[in-house]
User: What shape does this take?
Amino acid sequence: EALEEESEDFSHRRLWIIDRLKQYAKYFAIDVLGFVVMSNHYHLVLRTRPDVVADLSDTEVARRVCLISPNKRTAEGEPCEPTEPELDLIRNNPQELSEARCKLSDVSALMRRLNQFVATRANREEDKHGHFWKERYHSVRLVDDAALLAATLYVDMNPIRAFIAETLEECEYSSLQRRLVEMLAQYKQAIDQLDWI
Assistant: This one.
């Protein structure tokens, strides 16, 4: 199924993906280098960071895993910090801890959580059951800087190629638009500071 149908506006679902991706980026050791959320699919450019996981303490690994799959959430929907007994279930169990370390830099683990979250929420919203996504996600390993640049350009230009946007600034629900907005804000701030000189 698509994130949006032509007869209805489901654009709020795009924000679900972006918001959840931001949340997961805090806990997984996976860098989000680029993204675009289209009406019926999305693209991500991710970099796994097992080197980051290797430097984490056992407590921090357990904490992050608990925050990815929290037992409780705040009124705002944020995960509650895990309790000491919750942390102990992971950090005092060598097999659980080893699996947790692997999971934190595993793209499949992130994608499984993200797609499950969207599917569950969309099915609840529409009072439906069963499959939401037509296919399992596909990934391509980027082996060098040229491949990374090509993939990032592909992702960034997706709304323009699909005739959804005419300019880069109009590429909604994308990391490109967010980067441009941030750059323009920094540029404006620098110009404003020049006015005082």
Q: What stands out?
A: The two ends are 56 Å apart (CA to CA).
